[in-house]
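=== RUN LOG ===
request id: a7f3
mode: sequence -> structure
chains: 1
length: 325
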Amino acid sequence: MFNAIVIEKEPHYHARLATLSEADLPKGEVLVRVEYSTLNYKDALAITGKSPVVRQFPMVAGIDFAGTVIASQSPEFQEGDKVLLNGWGVGEKHWGGLAEKACVPANWLIPLPAPLTCQQAMAIGTAGYTAMLCVQALQKQGIQPDKGKILVTGANGGVGSFAIAILAHLGYHVVASTGRPSETAYLQALGAKEIIHRETLSAPAKPLMKEQWIGAIDSVGSHTLANVCASLQYGGVAVACGLAQGMDFPATVAPFILRGITLVGVDSVMCQKNDRLLAWQQLANMADALHLPQISHEIPLNDAINTATALLKGDIQGRVVVKIP
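=== RESULT ===
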């Protein structure tokens, strides 16, 4: 028997801490004893039912986890191996990581990269992994530190916090956009050189605005992303990875045509294995520079439901790591 955060639709949509058996687990090649998971924005939407994230019921929440292999039918993993998982629809279509055990296909897992511990991997989690994919996307487009300033929106969130820390470690000049100017000291400690209020970007955008940054990592979408694109320097690159403000994109083609900008989308859910391995190894190599104790804090599994509500209200700073009993 094991404990899990289970989301059910009947008699009404709700989440609860439930006791399950291994026989309840979905089919998979690898059985994992989960040691740490996280509480992401998508998890909070799923747990509270604020957005139709969950596709099948009942569902065990949690879009990522790290732990130890208990049993494996795959030659790729052996009992005792440390592994981690991000995405692939867990917590949405396949039972996820906010549980003491998980059973998944082998090709969804990657080995825990040295020297990370399971706790550190989930302090980074999907947010840090997504932020690294975004930084790599900027680099692939030739955006180097000497090219100009990089804007990070949603700076106090998980992706934003890690994007700032990674970019600063690599030598970029980071401008952080936040709705909580009281957190200026926190953002500066991560490496932000400038802080702007999110209201400067949240109103409807003009076709073209003053050129301010050569690159941007945006987890907000909607009017914010439109303003970001309209404010990019000539040849600039915006990387989109979230939709906290909305999934619409009320922009014009003007900055694309007149300034030659590029908009790159980053998906962390179905990202191919080679890209995952590269991103995670780079994260492992710079773990000491990622301010993990400042970016993350730990809660027990039985606090996950209440914390999900606080996260959606914007009351949570940085990352929430869930320690699994």
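=== NOTES ===
The first strand starts at residue 2 and ends at 8.
The two ends are 13 Å apart (CA to CA).
=== END ===
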